[in-house]
Structures are given as structure tokens and as C-alpha cells.
Amino acid sequence: MEDTICAISTAKGVGAISIIRISGKDAFKIINKIYKGKDLNKVESNTINYGYIYDKDELIDEVLVSILKSPKTYTMEDIVEINSHGGINTTNRILELVLENGARLAEPGEFTKRAFLNGRIDLTKAEAVNDLINAKSDLARKVALNNIKGNLYNKIKSLRNSIGELMANIEVNIDYPEYEDIEVITNEILKPKLNKIKEEIKIILNNTKNAKLINNGINVALIGRPNTGKSSILNKFLDEEKAIVTNIPGTTRDIVEGSITLDGFEINFIDTAGIRETSDVVEKIGVEKSKQATKDADIVIVVLNNNEKLTKEDEELINLVPENKRIIFVNKNDLENKLELKDEYVLGNTIDYSGIDNLKNAIKDKLNLDNIMVSDMTYMSNIREIDLLKKALNNIQSAITNLNSMPIDMLEIDISNAWNNLGEIIGEVYQDELLDILFSNFCVGK
Ligand SMILES: Nc1nc2c(ncn2[C@@H]2O[C@H](COP(=O)(O)OP(=O)(O)OP(=O)(O)O)[C@@H](O)[C@H]2O)c(=O)[nH]1
Ligand SMILES: [Mg+2]
User: Fold this and answer.
1) What is the number of the ligand closest to the CA of 352?
2) Are residues 59 and 156 in the same domain?
3) Which ligand is the nearest neighbour of the Cα of 248?
């Protein structure tokens, strides 16, 4: 934290401008050594100043320099941002110059880490910054932004406060049993309070399933016997001739993917090789990949041919997929109906869009996407947070289970463990190692 750090904060490559960011106590000293223009010591905070960057007598670039004075900055330290012309050469030259004049290259996420260590943001907000940068869909962006604003922090903090109050009550009862004006805490008082905390934790944990769909997108695999029209369906979804379509069974041999956005969700379609018994080595590998894709997918569309009788293989495929992620699509309804099916299915063809529209609705229904859209958007986005919240739930559950069989001071151990778990989520309790791992996933310069 004593070092002054610097990094290129914009994406590497050719662009109109690049930003070299410097943060730390020597930030202004360093810029003064390489900048010619106004006297930056005299300018106000939050100003942008025109001038030149020089390496001794050599002009390096014409720039705009932002001066941001501690403490109202991203890191809470003095920050300088040099807006230079874009392009790899100029940007690197300026970065080298900043390094030569006393800064050290920032590690990934180090600016955000400082914002956390200096107390400006908690860990959920820091992690949300990374989520925002990596957001793949509009919805993922909104959720991340909500968490940067403190949505998740406020929820966890208030839960932690409720647990803290319980702990204080128990503590007072244990330490001062002789005082008469202190409410005696009994199992009857504790039980509903613990249950309420448990229910609130459960709601957040339930939402985390949605977080995966929001952040990673929804994987939809198309499987079926050869020639049923899987690749045609993919192409229709994408409005593009992405996969090869022929009337020869076994046309698709490898996985073909493409994505669309549906109501803000990223939907990633995976077209697979038609599944059948085959002696062809290449096709065999393709069939294995199809089976794997089925396992990995959030939704599996089993494609059948309306123009053919149901085969044993069709039935096997239907049974291969668990009901909660299976959609059966009966394709080629422009041709004569020869298929009979007991299971629920979606009907259509790849000539017009009606079948595709029905499939979109079926995907939305299956995953309850409309509900996700209107819920409160408090999602935990990463394994670290989810894991800690699950531990907190277990600890609260253990206190509830032991409520009648253990003395109250023993219950306090479980309750205070839960309190610590929540503290770790927001970073009020943390280990240095954890921070290193967490921030190493960030971009350099953020
Ligand atoms: N009549 C009709 N033909 C279709 C329809 N959809 C696809 N086809 C035809 O069915 C044949 C097979 O289509 P594909 O999309 O290649 O089928 P596939 O399931 O990907 O086949 P494999 O890659 O071999 O597993 C092609 O000749 C398509 O033009 C449809 O809705 N109606
Ligand atoms: Mg195909």
C-alpha cells in the first residue's frame, strides 16, 4: 500500500485513446516529472488538464491529464489518469516512463483491492466491479450494477446485524443473570428469530441459481436422431446459415454453437451430431460429444421428425434427458403427420418462425425467466460468496436443531460462526491470501 502503482487501464490494442492510471502518494510527484503544461500542483481536484508528456527533451505525446485528489477517488488515494493517443507504442512508452519515475506496475485488480483495503467498498461491491466488466448480457450488467450500488451488501449486512443482536442478547443473559430488567432469552424467543434468518438466507441462496443463468448465459443443446432438423433449427434461431444442412443423415459431426439474446438473457445454442449407433470413427466421437453436451446443458431440445414413426432410439433419447430440462420439439409439421407421442411437445418446422417462437416461449417457461426478471435482483455471483452463505445457513440450522437439547451458551457458538461467515462475505473478516486470489481474477488497471 506504500507503493505508487500504475497500469494501462484501457484494452490493449489500437484505439483512439488509451488511459494510463497512477494511484498512490507519489502520483502527483511522478506526473510532474514527465508532464509539461499547467502547474498541476495548483489545479483543482477532478480536473482534466491539457499538456504534453516528455521523456527528458523528447516529446512523447500530446495528452489530457485527470487530477483526482485523495480521498474522494476510486482508491481513496491520489490518482492521475493520463489520456494519451491510443495504440500500443505510445501507451507503452508512457507506461515505461511512469515506471522509471517511481511507480510500480499494478497487479490485476490492485486498484480495486486498494478501494477495499482503504474502506471505500466492501468485498461484494469489489466483486461486482469484476462482474460488471465481464457481463455478457444486459441483465448481468444490471445485476452487477445493483451490487456495486450495495444491494447485496445491504442484505448481508442487515442479516448480520440481526444475528449480532441475538448474540448480544444471549451474551447479556449469560453474563448478567442477576439483572431483573434484562429480558430472559428463552428457546421460545430464539426459535422464530433464528427461523426468520434461515428463511432470508434461503431466499438469497435460491436466487443464486438464477445468477448462473444471468452471468453465464443459458446453454441449450439440440439433440436427436440424424436428419431430424437440428442444424436447421440452429440456423433459424441464429438467422444465419451457421451449420451445414443436407438431407444426408450424419451431416453434423462436431458441435456447432451460436448465441442469441432472449429477454436480456444470453442463450447459447449447441447443435450436436445426430445420435445413432455408428461404426464411423469420426461420427462416433461426435455422438459422444452430443451426450456430453446433453449433460452440461441447462435445457435440452430433443428433436423428432413429425413425418416419421417414433423409433426406439427416439424414446431412448427422450428418457436420456431429465424432465426438468427437457423440451421435445416435433419438427417438419409441414409434412404429413406419422408421429404419435404421449409426452408434451412443441410443434413446428424450420420453414416459418412459428415453431421457433414456440420454442423460445418453452425455454422461458422451463427456466421461469419471467420471474427472474421481476424478482429483486439480489444475486450472489460467485462461488466464494455462495459457499460462505451455505455455511452460515448450516450454522443457523444447527442452532435451531440444538435449540431444545443444548444450553443457550452452546448455541451461541453456532450463531457466532454464522455471524463470522457473513462477515467474510462482505469482507469485515478476511485473510490476506483470500484477497490475493480474489483480485487476481481482475483485469490489470482496474
Ligand atoms: N420439410 C421439412 N424439411 C426440413 C425441416 N427442417 C429440416 N428439414 C430438412 O431435413 C434435412 C436434415 O436437416 P438438418 O438440419 O441437416 O438435420 P440434422 O438433424 O442437423 O441432421 P444431422 O446433422 O445429420 O444429425 C435437410 O434436408 C433439411 O432441409 C422442416 O421443418 N420441414
Ligand atoms: Mg446437423
Assistant:
1) 1
2) no
3) 1
Q: How many CA atoms lie within 13 A of 17 on its CB side?
A: 11
Residue 19's φ and ψ, nearest 5 degrees, are -120, 125
Same domain for 301 and 284, yes or no, is yes
Mean pLDDT of 76-85: 98
Which ligand approaches the C-alpha of residue 250 most closely? Answer: 1
| Run of H or E including 437 | helix 432-439
Same domain membership, residue 207 and residue 142: yes
Q: Is 281 exposed, middle or buried (0-12, 13-18, 19+ CB in 10 A)?
A: exposed
Which of the pair, 400 or 443, is modelled with greater confidence? 400
**Ligand 1, residues 245, 291, 330, 354: which to mutate, most atoms within 8 A of Cβ?**
245
Closest residue by Cα to atom 3, ligand 1, is 332
The domain total for the chain is 3
Region 393-417: mean pLDDT is: 92
How far, in Å, is the centroid of ligand 1 from the Cα of 102?
A: 65
CATH number for the domain harbouring residue 74: 3.30.1360.120
* Domain span at 411: 130-213+382-427
CATH of the domain at 270: 3.40.50.300
Which domain CATH number covers 397? 1.20.120.430
The rounded Å distance from CA 41 to ligand 2 centre is 66
> Ligand 1 atom closest to Cα of 253?
23
Assess whether 176 and 221 both reside in one domain.
no
What pTM was computed for the model?
0.73
Q: Are residues 350 and 251 in the same domain?
A: yes
Q: Which of the listed residues 232, 314, 359 should we mutate to test ligand 1's pocket, taking the one with most ligand atoms within 8 A of CB? A: 232
Q: For residue range 303-344, what is the model confidence (pLDDT) as tens digits?
A: 999 999 999 889 988 988 999 999 999 999 999 999 999 999
> How far is the C-alpha of 100 from the C-alpha of 80, rounded, in Å?
16
Q: Is the Cβ atom of 335 under 6 angstroms away from ligand 1?
A: yes
Residue with CA closest to ligand 1 atom 8: 229
Distance 254 CA to ligand 1 centre (A): 16
Could you tell me which residues come within 8 angstroms of residue 219 by beta carbon, excluding any fewer than 6 positions away? 268, 270, 296, 297, 298, 299
Residue 446 lies in a domain: no
Main-chain dihedrals φ then ψ at residue 71, nearest 5 degrees: -100, -5
Query: CA-based Rg of the chain, rounded to a whole angstrom?
Result: 29
* 272 and 317 within one domain: yes
Pick from 266, 252, 245, 259: which is nearest to 223 by CA?
A: 252
**Res. 381: pLDDT tops 80:** no
- The per-residue pLDDT for 223 is 94
**228 and 181 within one domain:** no
Please check whether residues 252 and 361 belong to one and the same domain: yes
